[in-house]
Amino acid sequence: MLNRARMPDRSLRFGLLLRLGPILAVLFALDAIACYFTSLYFANAVYDRWMIDDTRSLAQAVRTENGRTVFDLPAAGLQVFQFDSVDKNYIRVTSASQGLLAGERNLPNGPPVALGKVGIAYATVNGERVRIAGTRIAPTPNDTVTLEVAETLKKRSTLATEILLGMIAPQITLLAIAMLLTWIGVARGLKPLTDLATEIESRDQDNLAPVLHNGLYRETRVLVSRINELLGRLGEALRAQKRFVADAAHQLRTPLAAVMLHAERAERAADKATEQDALRALHRSVERAARLSQQLLALARAEPGATSTAELKPVELGALARRVGEEWIPRALQLDVDFGLVVPDEPVLATGDERLLTELLSNLIDNAFRYGGPSGHVTVTVEASPVPRISVQDDGPGIPAEERQRIFERFYRMPGSGGEGCGLGLAIVQEIATLHQSTVEISSGPDDRGSRFTVSFRRPA
Ligand code: ADP
């Protein structure tokens, strides 16, 4: 169960908008600034052209009379030039030889211009910024006249602001539509995920069937594949666990029933000898139950679901064989088995879990001792090539070819097998080998006698 209280309960949609919103707002502000300056540029271009035309029109009124330069524009005409309901307009006509011919004397100087050319610049009149355009003509070879027209900037900024406002309204709409589309789009994009969540939520706990990929995007398909892989592994672990519990319950029933039987027999025994006999049988049954539970646990540890608990690291097989071999010496002496170990001088490395490999080797040696028969020969051999491998050989009755597959099955015992076995030893060996991606082969010993179990490992990377 997820701990909802600790998780921030923010939706992906909201999160996306929260990230996208400020970015869009900044872009919008930058766009508005750019838009304002572009509008201003064009407003300036239009009004500047008019002012330049004005200077040229004024130049038409400059004439020469008896060698003198005159500016021949009646006051009414000048008023028309200067009329403007929004901005203040100024003009100045100055002759180089005769000084001011018309207009404001105190107008600041316009841009320096060459004869016949026009120029335009910013200036300040009575504390107000103006645009000032000027041109210079030569009515006579001895005189030049400068004509200047100035105008305050109100119209220009009003026009730029109006253009800006005209553009901002659709942009705000656009921004709102973009946010709305993001909101809807994210919801649509997430639908496969919400469907997936609903599907998983509505399942009962035993349903570990793969989730369907229908209509999912590539990115979500990867997620679904991983979930399905996990479900697969979970299913496998669950099946293994169920099988283990069923096996354990079933297999322990017999020895436990025997324990109860012998205990009752001991209780009811009429004489000491019967009681002793019942107690000995009880002891054997308890031993059997203990061995069985120990083997069941070993099997559970080696099962595929337990892979994550295995600690795979480099293991020196020679040292492992020596250590495990030593533990079996007392038993070999007890059974009068000729127990030998053949280990090369150089280290033989394999990748594995030392504890599980000890279990594997112990099971093989145990079988060789039990089925090889008393006074037999058992040899553990470690080899480095062609691959790191370890083998256990005995000179007992051997295993017929048709049984070599079946003896690895759980609880399978070859017909006629004596002793206390429960058919789990080789199943454990097989599981441990599989977990190590190694193989177990059975062959016959020299002269077709006995059996040889060889476990071949992969070389450590
Ligand atoms: P258990 O030994 O408890 O019966 P195992 O899984 O270890 O279970 O072995 C399964 C069967 O394989 C045994 O019952 C036995 O018949 C046979 N077997 C195992 N090892 C040998 C061996 N070294 N020689 C002959 N038969 C063997």
What are the bound molecules?
A: adenosine-5'-diphosphate
Question: Which class do the helix and strand fractions yield?
Answer: alpha+beta
Q: Supply the number of helical segments.
A: 8
Tell me the Rg in angstroms.
Answer: 51 Å
Notes on the structure:
This protein is an alpha+beta fold and 461 residues long. Helices cover 51% and strands 19% of the residues. The strands form four sheets. A five-stranded antiparallel beta sheet has the order 4-3-7-6-5, with helices on one face. α1 packs antiparallel against α3 and α7 packs antiparallel against α8. The longest helix is centred in the middle third of the chain and has 51 residues, at 218-268. It starts with 11 loop residues before the first helix and ends in a 5-residue tail after the last strand. Adenosine-5'-diphosphate binds at residues 367-368, 371, 394, 396-397, 399, 407, 413-414, 417, 421-427, 451. The site of adenosine-5'-diphosphate (ADP) has 19 residues, from α7 and α8.
Short descriptors:
alpha+beta; binds adenosine-5'-diphosphate; 5-stranded antiparallel β-sheet; 5-stranded mixed β-sheet; 461 residues
Topology diagram in text:
Layout: H1 12-59, E1 62-65, E2 68-71, H2 75-82, E3 89-95, E4 99-103, E5 118-125, E6 128-140, E7 143-152, H3 154-201, H4 218-268, H5 272-302, E8 313-316, H6 317-335, E9 338-342, E10 349-352, H7 354-372, E11 377-383, E12 389-394, H8 425-435, E13 439-444, E14 451-456
Parallel strand pairs: 9-11
Antiparallel strand pairs: 1-2, 3-4, 3-7, 5-6, 6-7, 8-10, 11-12, 12-14, 13-14
Helix pairs in contact: 1-3, 4-5, 5-8, 6-7, 7-8
